[in-house]
Amino acid sequence: MCGRYVATRSPQDLAGLFHVSRWNPEQLLAPSWNVAPTDDVWAVLERPDHGTGEVERQLRALRWGLVPSWAKSVDVGAKMINARMETVHEKPAYRRAFAKRRCLLPADGFYEWQAVPMEGRSKPRKQPYFISPEDGQPMAMAGLYEFWRDPDVADDDPAAWWTTCTIITTDATDAAGRVHPRMPLAIAPAHYDAWLDPTHQDPEELRTLLTTPADGHLNARAVSPAVNDVRNNGPHLLEDAPADPSGSGGPDT
């Protein structure tokens, strides 16, 4: 799974990197070294303009944890942060979004945890690893988004509609596979247009666009156990793990 990641680039940088034509400069998200489920995250997507109908590439803040349109509560999103590549095109919660509502979720890298036996303790310690492209370039994680209408909010209230997202994952390889069996998928720059195009709806063709981040050229290194607590944030979370870390416990989401 992908349960935490790092996203520190500004919306201005993201708009340039992903050739975004529309974003709201008043919508701001702080850089985060500990993005967690239910956080708002930047997403690149394509939607028709309400006035002209022309499809625009947009940068939007979405809530991480997809809520299907038929869900009774937004709370279900906390359990739907990842969609498996093997079944995403057929699962009821994801198949419509996979056909029509795909997005890119920019990231510097992601975290995974490895169980480390501790002498004298019955439970192993969970050591976090930061996994990122070797060349330092941003990842465009493959995502889906969905709209959910809150039935308890009035129609004229902007809060009536939620836009949520999920990350598509697959079996991990290379550096990521040595830490955890699953990892996020990514979209290569040459395939951004095809992935984001809402008129491109052939499931098998779309699945061929899903690739390993950085073509598998990933670096994985043990980092501070402080990342285990979602309340911690800042660049210090990417510091190399101490030789004999005293922290214990896994990701607290």
UniProtKB/TrEMBL annotation:
<keyword id="KW-0227">DNA damage</keyword>
<dbReference type="Pfam" id="PF02586">
    <property type="entry name" value="SRAP"/>
</dbReference>
<keyword id="KW-0614">Plasmid</keyword>
<dbReference type="InterPro" id="IPR036590">
    <property type="entry name" value="SRAP-like"/>
</dbReference>
<keyword id="KW-0645">Protease</keyword>
<keyword id="KW-0238">DNA-binding</keyword>
<comment type="similarity">
    <text>Belongs to the SOS response-associated peptidase family.</text>
</comment>
<keyword id="KW-0456">Lyase</keyword>
<dbReference type="InterPro" id="IPR003738">
    <property type="entry name" value="SRAP"/>
</dbReference>
<protein>
    <recommendedName>
        <fullName>Abasic site processing protein</fullName>
        <ecNumber>3.4.-.-</ecNumber>
    </recommendedName>
</protein>
<feature type="region of interest" description="Disordered">
    <location>
        <begin position="220"/>
        <end position="253"/>
    </location>
</feature>
<keyword id="KW-0378">Hydrolase</keyword>
<keyword id="KW-0190">Covalent protein-DNA linkage</keyword>
